[in-house]
Design brief:
It contains five helices and no strands. The protein is mainly α and 102 residues long. It has a domain of 53 residues.
Length: 102
């Protein structure tokens, strides 16, 4: 059964890659507006944070590993996890303070 599931996922992934973007669902104007609004909120919160914390969150969101974060921001590799955790905690706190529990 597990093998069948892996094959099914593999086929689905292959078909999704081949499927032209024109056939994929296009967001409606309200969804586009809400997404832009959320992006603006995130940018606002990041701008209010300490620069290093904002950079950590942005680079991590881009897929940087802990080692890459340490190199890029000149940090001790052993402290990246804790600093990232604190940055995320600060982000949550600031977001809730500005925008509530939405």
């Amino acid at each position: 059964m597990a093998l069948d599931e892996l094959r099914r996922r593999s086929r689905r992934d292959r078909y999704e890659r081949l499927l032209p973007r024109t056939f994929r669902r296009v967001p409606n104007p309200e969804e586009v507006h809400l997404a832009r609004e959320e992006q603006q909120r995130v940018r606002s919160v990041l701008a209010s944070m300490a620069t290093r914390q904002a950079e950590l969150l942005l680079l991590r969101a881009e897929g940087f590993s802990y080692g890459e974060l340490a190199s890029a921001l000149d940090l001790n590799p052993l402290s990246v996890g804790k600093l990232l955790s604190r940055a995320l905690q600060t982000f949550r706190k600031e977001y809730l303070k500005k925008y509530g529990s939405e």
